[in-house]
């Protein structure tokens, strides 16, 4: 697999010996764990994929999408890949991304919705390539978790979610996937994505059809930030929750059943007293 560093003005292929340093330059705002996660994905793909595949690094996105993904271009199509070092238990239900709360033993919305971010970035890439004169080809979003401590429960997720032990199999499967792009088409895509995003290109991204429907993670985080705080649960429920992992809705249902049973027993007692 070839690796092209778009942060390099000459567009030269990055040498393996400078892999860690180059990734650190590409994403200065990300943590060291994020950079190591991208490095791990690159090494796995380089060991499996042949020279028909090219990995692009450092594509600049609008400020709302500051995190730079890995973009894999090859005969099967284009993959927009987020490499994540996160660990824990997560659940993806369509566009919802939830994390297991270790204390409450229940899922809650995660701080960063990685599937939504991957989808938004794939739509940005699609908008950049929309005027290329070629047959339709897939642009797939994916999130790769490099930490073996990450466990995912997918339920119709909007992006491909791959755990650490399956990254190698995912890369190998691309060699067997049906070819949709010719060598000329791949070169055209690489040439287009290698061009810096000018003001005209940014304007096109804003006006691109379907892009405004892309999930806006920044807006969602702002809404959550200024949303009214949830109602505090009674202390007795908080204490019992330590032993029974029920969410608020389940507690309400349980309480309604309890009240209903009390009313039923009271009615039976009243009927018995009247009869006797």
Task: Explain the overall architecture.
The structure is a single chain. With 276 residues, the chain is an alpha/beta fold. It is 42% helix and 19% strand. It has helices at 19-26, 32-48, 114-129, 167-174, 183-194, 199-207, 217-226, 235-241, 248-275, and strands at residues 2-5, 54-57, 70-74, 77-84, 88-93, 96-101, 106-109, 139-145, 150-155, 160-162. Helix 2 packs across helix 4 (167-174). The longest helix has 28 residues, at 248-275. The model is unreliable at 11-17, 22-29 and 206-231 (pLDDT under 50).
Write the SSE topology.
Layout: E1 2-5, H1 19-26, H2 32-48, E2 54-57, E3 70-74, E4 77-84, E5 88-93, E6 96-101, E7 106-109, H3 114-129, E8 139-145, E9 150-155, E10 160-162, H4 167-174, H5 183-194, H6 199-207, H7 217-226, H8 235-241, H9 248-275
Helix pairs in contact: 1-2, 2-4
Brief rundown of the structure:
The chain is an alpha/beta fold and 276 residues long.
